Structure formats: C-alpha cells, structure tokens
Amino acid sequence: MTSVGLGLPSIRSRRGQPRRPPAPGLIDEYGRVARDLRVSITEKCTLRCTYCMPEQGLPPIDSHALLTASEIIRLVDIAVRHLGIREVRFTGGEPLIRRDLEKIIAGCRRLHSQLPLSITTNAIGLDRRAEGLANAGLDRVNISLDTVDRALFTRLTRRDRLPSVLAGIRAARLHGFTPVKVNAVLNADTLATAEDLLQWCLNENVQLRFIEQMPLDADRTWNRTDAVTADDLLGVLRRRFRLAPHGRIDSSAPAEEWTVDGGPARVGIIASVTRAFCGDCDRTRLTAEGTIRPCLFSDTEIDLRSALRAGVSDDELAKSWRDAMWRKQFGHGIDNEGFTPPARSMGAIGG
C-alpha cells in the first residue's frame, strides 16, 4: 500500500510502518527533505548565556571525541554529493574557539565552490579573524546579540564583552559577509530593550531576527506560561516603528518578516514555540562528536564518527545518515501534555 505525505510516496510494511523509498536525499516518513546542514564543531563558548549554558560551562568533550577538521570536511562532502545538502552552517558552542575553523571552511570550499557556507557566532574575536575567514571562503555570519544595553548584556551572558561583539559585527560588514544577520532571543529582559536593538541594527545596516526562547536551556528554567511571544514583541516594537507583514522568503525559512517604516529594511521573527514550523523543517544536524541528530528536540542520535574511523565507505556513511533522517519525529511537541525537554541543551546540540 502506498501513502502520500507532502507529495512524496512511502511504502508501508506489513505492520503498517512506512518504509523509506529508494530516494537519494534525506527524506523522512512525513515527506520532508533536509537540505540545510548544521554542523556543531565545539561545545566550548566564550559566553555563558543564561538561556543556553550553565554558569560553569558545559561538560568538556575529550579532544579525541571531537570530529577533526578532515572528518568534518569529509562528512560535509558526503552530505552534498550523496544527500542533497544545499547549505551548511557551522555552529557551537562558539565556532571561533576552533583554531582550525579557517581550515574547515577552506576544505569545504575547495570541494564545493558554490556551496553556501556560514557560521553562527557570538562575534567575540571575529574582528581579528574576519579577513581570514573571508579568504577561506565563508559567505556569511549569523551573530548572537540579545541587547545593546551593556549592563543587561553582562547579566545575560555573565561576561562583560559587548564591545567585542559590536567590533566583530562591524568587522563582518567590513570584510564583505552578506548578509550579516543578528539573532536575538526573546525573554522578559530582552523585550524591554528590543526597540533599541532594532534601531541599532537599522543604523548599522544589519538584519535582525528575534527568536522565541525554546526549552533548551541548561539550567531548565524555561516556563511555557512565562515565555515571551512573537505577539508580545510586535506590541513593543510598534510603539516606535511602523511594521507591515512581509511573510516568509520561502516555506522552509523559519523567520516571518516585517517591513520597518515602509521598507526596505525588515525585521524577522522566529516564532518557534507559538507558530511552530516543524512541518516545513529542512534541517539535519551533526554534533561535535559526530552524531546525527534528526530533530533539535529529539534525544535520538546516530553515531557516524565510529563508522567513519572504522574505515567505512562514503556510500555506507550516506546510507546511515539517510536511515537516521527517515525516523525524524514530526515536531517538537512543546504544547503536548507531558512534554520533556531534550537532555542536551542548545549549546551541546549546536544552534
């Protein structure tokens, strides 16, 4: 018997469980196709954001357990050549902590000259490395910045490093990364300074996206009833700016965009909790230890590192990746009764 999900047929077994059709890409049983790869390359970070990491940082990963630069490059190559990945973003922790980040970028660029490559970073130290990363082949940067109020920044990140972040943002623009995007996580504190952050981003000609906070904090303090929502944010921003809905660039893009004061400037809002977009998810994640994580909110991880180091072929690694993604869960289930956050926090999974 054949069933259809989002346009892709799947064949059901005798027990009613769908079997993966013989397609080369990273499809799941709901018909979604993963084309966006997120690669975490470290669990370490130069900040300790309260919604991400505990004050003491995450438990360290032994160096031999981390994927090497050559292993990361090989897996990215497999993802592109065998699995249909069209975009790669390197995350952490903080990817700038890896001294071989330029080597990773350059290795991927040599193999795939047109592949969009980006990083998500807090921008501390980016002013010193932006030129080298641009020369290595990095296309763009997403920078985490929740406020331009220095005292609040220090309280949220447990580090007084706002000037370093702002210098990194300006260096990214100077060295031609396009676009430069700023990501801000919504909570009661950041909501109070959201207008100032948007004005700063407009002045600096960088794109701002606000993100509803998800239950991925290491300290487990997130509470659904107290969470700040996209609607809360719109109410605050409209006190200073004229906003008009612009929609999504494409169906898989997580941000709903709004034109600001008639445009062309826009602000994005990723309502990952209140307006979940799981049905259009096109992401697959590779952790710093070399496991495939099909869904951000699933504790299921499939080990590729052991197979990689055991000498298996690219075809075998691709097959394991396909099998892992076929079993991807439908959504995060935050509003479901009995919802339990994943064991790993965002910093350990990779943004």
Main structural class: alpha/beta
The tally of domains stands at: 1
Mean pLDDT, to the nearest integer, reads 88
By DSSP (H or I, 4+ residues per run), the number of helices equals 11
**Strand percentage:** 15-25%
Helix content: 25-40%
The CATH class designation is Alpha Beta
Which strand order do you get reading across the main beta sheet? 12-13-14-11-10-9-8-7-6-15-16-17
The CATH topology turns out to be TIM Barrel
Low-confidence stretches: 1-15
* Strand and helix order: EEEEEEHEHEHEHHEHHEHEEEEEEHHH
Protein name: GTP 3',8-cyclase
Catalytic activity: GTP + AH2 + S-adenosyl-L-methionine = (8S)-3',8-cyclo-7,8-dihydroguanosine 5'-triphosphate + 5'-deoxyadenosine + L-methionine + A + H(+)
Binding site for [4Fe-4S] cluster 2: 278, 281, 295
Pfam families: Mob_synth_C, Radical_SAM
Describe the structure.
InterPro entries: Aldolase_TIM, Elp3/MiaA/NifB-like_rSAM, MoaA, MoaA-like, MoaA_twitch, MoCo_biosynth_MoaA/MoaC, rSAM, rSAM_sf. S-adenosyl-L-methionine binds at residues 51, 93, 144, 214. Its EC number is 4.1.99.22. [4Fe-4S] cluster 2 binds at residues 278, 281, 295. This is GTP 3',8-cyclase. This protein has a single domain, classed as Alpha-Beta Barrel (TIM Barrel). It has a twelve-stranded mixed sheet. Strands 1-2-3 form a three-stranded antiparallel sheet, with no helix packed on it. The protein is α/β, with parallel strands linked by helices and 351 residues long. It is globular and about 55 Å long. The longest helix has 15 residues, at 69-83. α1 (69-83) runs parallel beside α2 and α2 packs parallel to α3 (126-136). It has helices at 69-83, 101-111, 126-136, 150-157, 162-174, 188-192, 194-204, 230-237, 305-309, 314-326, 346-349; strands at residues 2-5, 8-12, 18-19, 26-27, 33-34, 36-40, 87-91, 117-121, 140-144, 180-186, 207-212, 243-247, 256-260, 266-270, 283-286, 291-293, 302-303.
